[in-house]
Amino acid sequence: MSTAPILHNGLVVAGHGRHVWVETDEGQRVICHPRGKKSQTVVGDRVLWLPSEDEGTIEKVQPRRNLFYRQDEIRTKSFAANLDQILILIAAEPEYSESQLARALIAAEAENIKPVIALNKSDLTAPFAQAWDRLGAYSDMGYTLLPLALKPKSETASLPAHSLDELLQGKTTLVLGPSGSGKSTLINRMVPNAQVLTNAISTALNSGKHTTTSTTLYWADAARTTAIIDSPGFQEFGLHHIEPMRLASLMPDIAAHAGDCKFYNCSHLHEPGCGVISNVESAAGPGGIRARRYKIYSDLFAELSQKRY
Q1: Which of 54, 67, 132, 237 could pair with 103 as two cysteines, CB 3.0-4.6 Å apart?
Q2: pTM for the full model?
């Protein structure tokens, strides 16, 4: 009578194609392959895997708390699973895209993941003041805003009372940011040996020269309680997995007035007696909806209404 094979617990910390790097509870890392043709694992997944010689096979993906992803007309891009928060890093220069920021926030809201907005380059006084003012709408909505002045190979300057380290400590955080925002500097500050680890992963997974097309989890502390996940893919952020009529509930400033509409199925675009439309104003006001935010909503609603099935 043969005994059932013993499955091991593991955490997916990196992936390339059909290969993933799984970390054991003891901190050892092993290359694993999915059972079947398609890999369903993402970084942050807890899995059960079966050893086979010097590699392993993923037998089961444990239930996820959440999954942060984007979806356009062609494909779905999964960033990571089981997140505590998402740090969206933008900079005073180059000027950030508010539409891009809004899309990431909506995707986070859809999965009930806390987002933190960090604005880098506070040392650039005038551009930073202008960019910080633009973010006032997000502060009013209750989002955490963090000013940063990240410098390569130096400590972070101009940190507020809730410092970057305090925000990240003991949590699993996905870091997103467009090119030029300082994301690599932030990762290297939190994880000084990040590049060494990245090179090791690339070599282990036979991916050749490392590119920024893969997502990687790093531990920022020896106790492995603070995880930083670095992921590319912020330039294009499709939300085709969001139903148009759900959109308002995922934008706090719109949602605050959506309950005041005359019709229960109001799209907030043209209906009479719409609580949202009546609160749109060009200048910032207490409890009002900024015109540029309403334009993001209406543009997204149109985009999501035209999505292909």
Answers
A1: 237
A2: 0.89
Per-residue confidence (pLDDT) for residue 159, from 0 to 100: 47
Identify the structural domains of the chain with CATH numbers, from first to last.
8-61 (2.40.50.140), 67-230 (3.40.50.300), 244-305 (1.10.40.50)
Per residue in 174-192, pLDDT tens? 999 988 898 988 988 888 8
Q: Virtual CA dihedral for 251, 252, 253, 259, nearest 10 degrees?
A: 100
> What is the rounded CA–CA span in Å between residue 85 and residue 118?
13
Residue 277 CA, distance from chain mean position: 30
Q: Nearest Cα to 137, choosing from 306, 30, 297, 286?
A: 286
Give residue 164's identity as a one-letter amino acid code.
L
3-state secondary structure of 137: helix
110 within 8 A of 248, measured Cβ to Cβ: no
Question: Any idea of the CA torsion for 128, 131, 133, 136, to the nearest 10 degrees?
Answer: -120
- Residue 267 and residue 248: Cα distance in Å, rounded? 8
Q: How far apart are CA 90 and CA 96, in angstroms?
A: 6
Which residue from 260, 271, 262, 259 is spatially nearest to 301, judged by alpha carbons?
271
Give the pLDDT band (50/70/90) at residue 5: confident
Compute the average pLDDT of residues 99-128: 95
**Residue 22 β-bridge partners:** 12, 30
Overall average pLDDT of the 269-290 stretch? 82
Identify residue 66 by its one-letter amino acid code: N
Give the residue from 300, 244, 303, 237 showing the smallest Cα distance to 75: 237
Q: What's the mean per-residue pLDDT of the chain?
A: 87
DSSP-derived 3-state class of residue 135: coil
Instruction: Return the exposure string of 164-194: e unless at least 16 CB atoms fall within 10 Å of the residue's CB, then b.
Output: beebbeebbbbbbbbeebbbbbbbebbbeeb
Hey, what are 174's tokens? Answer: 């996905």
pLDDT digits (tens, 9 = 90+) for 130-165: 999 999 999 999 999 999 988 765 444 444 434 888
